């Protein structure tokens, strides 16, 4: 009676029962085709499918070197042309020593299609890179020109103010170099001046102040005479004053 009570009180989740449970196999179950092929191959007289035989024959042939078989027609031809086993090909022995690997074609596209597609892709990539470079260079050049134009406009504005100061100090009250076209009527001479670029306007104003007042805009001073100007001023251009 006690034995029956003990068996009723046993824990069926204990390690005793868990260790006795057989572990399931982790091996991937085979498909019906694999099982059928295994069963057929175990029988005598079984003939493998043509595709499988071709694959095995091809892999076996590709795994062998041409110089492993002394009776190979290809090896005999190479020896007649001076080839020695283990040495590179070529008259000066600068060629390859290993045969070119064969890549099996698995798709239905033409033989040269993959190379053609690769060339097209490389050409398109090259064109995109070129366009990106041109766009980048164009942007950099545009920014550079904008910065130069901004600098010239600032110099022109300053030169016009200096010219006006020098003229008014000498009693000159009218000059196209500092005349504001918003405040004065435009004549032919003024119109021609306004049609010039900012750089051309600046050159004309600087030349005028240099010849009339011995004033160098880049030096920022007015010299007593022409001799002093030519002696002390480095030049007429901005780069001369670096």
Can you offer a commentary on this structure?
- The chain has 242 residues and is mainly alpha-helical.
- Among the domains are: 54-95, no CATH class; 151-241, no CATH class.
- 54% of the residues lie in helices and 2% in strands.
- The protein has nine helices and two strands, in the order H-H-H-H-H-H-H-H-E-E-H.
- The protein has helices spanning 2-8, 15-20, 32-41, 50-62, 73-80, 113-169, 188-194, 198-213, 226-232, and strands spanning 215-216, 221-222.
- It has a two-stranded antiparallel ribbon with strand order 1-2.
- The longest helix has 57 residues, at 113-169.
- The N and C termini lie far apart (117 Å).
- It comes from Cetraspora pellucida.
- Residues 1-74 are annotated as: Disordered.
- GO terms for molecular function: nucleic acid binding.
- Residues 70-116 form the G-patch domain.
- Residues 49-68 have a biased composition (Basic and acidic residues).
């Amino acid at each position: 009676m006690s034995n029956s009570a003990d068996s009723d009180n046993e824990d069926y989740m204990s390690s005793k029962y868990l260790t006795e449970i057989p572990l399931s196999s982790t091996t991937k179950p085979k498909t019906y085709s694999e099982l059928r092929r295994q069963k057929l191959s175990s029988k005598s007289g079984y003939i493998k499918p043509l595709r499988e035989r071709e694959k095995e024959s091809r892999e076996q042939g590709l795994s062998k070197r041409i110089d492993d078989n002394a009776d190979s027609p290809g090896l005999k031809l190479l020896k007649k042309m001076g080839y020695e086993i283990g040495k590179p090909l070529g008259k000066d022995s600068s060629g390859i020593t290993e045969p070119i690997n064969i890549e099996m074609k698995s798709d239905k596209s033409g033989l040269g299609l993959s190379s053609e597609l690769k060339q097209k892709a490389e050409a398109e990539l090259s064109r995109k890179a070129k366009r990106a470079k041109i766009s980048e260079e164009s942007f950099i050049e545009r920014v550079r020109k904008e910065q130069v134009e901004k600098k010239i406009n600032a110099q022109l504005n300053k030169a016009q103010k200096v010219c006006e100061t020098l003229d008014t100090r000498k009693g000159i009250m009218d000059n196209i170099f500092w005349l504001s076209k918003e405040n004065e009527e435009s004549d032919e001479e003024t119109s021609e001046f306004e049609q010039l670029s900012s750089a051309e306007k600046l050159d004309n104003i600087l030349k005028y102040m240099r010849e009339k007042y011995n004033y160098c805009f880049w030096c920022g001073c007015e010299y007593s005479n022409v001799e002093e100007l030519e002696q002390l001023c480095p030049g007429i251009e901005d780069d001369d004053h670096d």
